[in-house]
Amino acid sequence: MPRICSIILSLLFFLDGHLVLKAQDNSAIFTKRDSPIGIVSFGSAVTSGVLGEGAFIDGYIKKSGSDAFIFPVGDNGAFRPFAVNSDQAIGAYYGVNPAVAVTSNPAGGDYGVLPEGGPFNTGSLMSELIAVSTSEYWDINGTSPTRITLSWNDNSAVNALVTNRGLSKLTIAGWDGTKWVNLPASVDATSLFGQPSTASSGSLTTLLDIVPNTYNVYTLGALRDGALPVVLVSFTGVARERTSYLEWRTSEEVNASHFEIERSSDAKSWRKIGNVAARGEGIATPSAPSHYTFTDDNPLNGSNFYRMKMVDIASDGKDGAFAYSRIVKVEFNGQPELAVYPNPVAEKLFFSQSIQQNLASARLVDAAGRTVFASREVSGDGIDVSRMPPGLYMLKFSFTDGLSKSYKVLISR
Fold first, then answer.
1. Closest Cα partner for 256 from 161, 321, 184?
2. How confident is the model at residue 353 (pLDDT cuts 50, 70, 90)?
3. Residue 114 and residue 91: Cα distance in Å, rounded?
4. Is the dihedral of CA 6, 7, 13, 14 positive or negative?
5. Cis? peptide before 115, omega within 30° of 0
6. Going by DSSP bridges, is the β-strand pair 322-324/302-312 parallel, antiparallel, or unpaired?
7. Listed residue (103, 92, 99, 96) closest to 119, CA to CA
8. Mean pLDDT of 274-287
9. pTM of the predicted structure, to 2 decimals
10. Which residues form the Secretion system C-terminal sorting domain (predicted)?
């Protein structure tokens, strides 16, 4: 018979700052989903939500503190974590169709429609979306702005969701009370599961901070596309000292005229900042793609969002047709932008020299919440990780001005 955990766990056992709590049969811990909900509560000292292989919370979790945290949630036997760094955030996973919003009750039968505001019509979409998931959603609540990370696996069927157009068409959608809204997101190179994101398993994170309470629930969505004047292989952006370096490759250019670079501080209002001529039809091929670069010498302090407008050659007196690339983000926060490489890493992890300024401490924390490396300075020799077990780690930097930054690092051999 399933165990029902319907109380708030306020006293927990810790080992080196890591919560030790798992189901006896190495499976799920259940909490009550309808009002009054049961909550498994993680204190601010907990740095990892790992409960053990195959173990997760089938119900709601609350996390104190604003550090990045992976919520080990699931439903109906499926583990589907999410991540936020919002103090006092509460969330749960529902492995059912949002348009029905009824999941099973381990005490017997089914719950009613959950959460409040459901069901959530999967056919009511803003124009940027062509579809949303009909198999799962997350109820995430909080009042502090945060990036939101959602995960998927084989059962999420993301290839079918994006109609086999690739993960670049995958996004996060939020229900605003009447329709699903696109929340621009990018696929994580290293997923919440500790492995590279693929069509069968992975995660993606919103590009903007969102107050979780803005939307009733969240799910995976598919972006609508148009006919591109070029076949875009990649479009990336990185910080190089105090400039934004944009790079893209095309494998086919049919009647392409030029590329316009646009920048925004909020991914809503855009301004053209540059123009690059296309090389023309017949130059780029799948085996020998054309390579382009653009440097923004005067990026904004804070968040810089970039997109590329791919413009066709004008004909018959009409302006050329166009389509947009995905959005990339480059950030300058008034402190040295951190470059951590290579990632995944096998032997040595390096950082850009600029992080020496104002650096107070650097810590590498494993999945169990143990600090495996700590230093008040990082030399050009980097960190030797060759003797550390493979897996997902969190690299945490603190600066003398009170700011901090965390990176997920995958040690893989």
1. 321
2. low
3. 12
4. positive
5. yes
6. antiparallel
7. 99
8. 74
9. 0.56
10. 340-402
